[in-house]
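Lecture 7, part B: from sequences to assemblies.

Below are the input chains for today's worked example.
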Amino acid sequence: MSEKSWKEVPIGGLIVEPGNSKNYKTGSWRSFKPVWYEDRCIQCLACWNSCPEPSIFVVEGKVTGIDYDFCKGCGICAEVCPEKAHAIEMEPEF
Amino acid sequence: MSKIMGLSGNEAVAHAMRQINPDVAAVYPITPQTELMHQFAEFHSDGLVDTELVLVESEHSAMSATVGAAAAGARAMTATSANGLALMWEIVYIASSLRLPIVMPVVNRALSGPINIHCDHSDTMGARDSGWIQIFSENGQEAYDNAVMAVKISENKTILLPTMVTLDGFILSHTLERVEILEDNEVKKFIGEYHPETSLLDVDKPSTYGALDLQDYYFEHKRQQFEAMGNVLPVIEQVSKEYGKLSGRDYGLIEKYRVDDAERVIILMGSSVGTAKDTVDDLRNAGEKVGLIKIRVYRPFPYNALREALKHVKALAVLDRAISFGTFGGPVFTDVRAMLFGNGVSLPMMNYIYGLGGRDIDKAQIRLAFDSLKDVVKTGKVKKEVNFLGLRD
Ligand code: SF4
Ligand code: SF4
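Predicted structure of the full complex, as structure tokens:
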């Protein structure tokens, strides 16, 4: 989790900055993290097609990485990634 | 300048509330607290306070209304006893986790069942882990003083936690005593005005209270509560000192009574301390080296002060007016043991559970506890750790 320490957040669970939900990086909910290996990727875009967020970065038709700010770690991308490529692996993250 | 009055414990605390003059008070009756809010409502009807009274339909609502008012930026209070506190439970934790400095007198009464309206400490003991500060009172005077001080303690910027000020049901709540109360404006000046940094009604600085807090921050917020609790004891000592200057009564965290050269000591809380002091005097007159320690601040637990006070003691008995099933003795005993163990004080300890459901405690019972420690001093050993006083065997 890339979040703030207990010394930095407002006490009492208060939200003191109105309308800040867009700053809320739901990626912190993740307990498994997809790791993408560019060298093994065959650019089939199955992961991009299946990611429910979407959190697969694609630039000019090519996967370039994963948006960890919002990826929730569901593992669908790793599941759909063709077996022979095996370009995404889920790693535990706490 | 103080005024001397004849007041019951409930009335004394109602006078404290009148002088605190909270913005909002949620009112719901429960024996033996009823008279307290009754008296306060009378002050309200007589136009002596500016408080908005919320007449609620249960204690769950009383605590909810108090939390709502406090979140809106008000100085908010309510009062309860026993099953009323139990019904508040869910919101009791929310008050402390939202860091709302609510002050709530709790008139101690046995928690049902079997149903009973008389004094023991089982109600507030259940709330000892709820994140509230808990201050126990020996008499009506102390209940009054504690209620006034509690406002200043709770609202301290380094704390912002709610406080329960307890007084023993009937024994204190319904007994007339000589009570010195301060001038209204002295209390007003002592507690000052309440200006919270955030509040629901501050439209220029909007804030959200009670938002969902999951795996990512709940833990951090609990750590903050832990930190705030850690700040409490020095603040109480400071506030006690200031209050002492104003009133002539400086209390501190614990009260030591003839402890300095004592070999045998008992620890207890609440109204029985008076009876125990009398017993100590009797035994001292007979040449016995005995003393007692009254715990005033139970949460946070004043471990350093206690450890220091017990250094030279040879045998100790902890008297608990509550029972804790499935643990090792009563709650105060368990705390004292845990505090001493591993801290270089090896002290043989006995536990006496007493006074449940309003069972009277008298000097003979307390003497029995002291007498049983003689053998412990001699042998350094405790035969039976958990015992009962005033129980028919
Ligand atoms: S783990 Fe789920 S959310 Fe994250 S990139 Fe893969 S498919 Fe999208
Ligand atoms: S599914 Fe696998 S191989 Fe296909 S684009 Fe995504 S990472 Fe590359």
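Note for the exam: The pocket of iron/sulfur cluster (ligand 1) is lined by residues A 34, 51, 53, 55-56, 66, 71-77 (CB under 6 Å). Keep this in mind when comparing with the next example.
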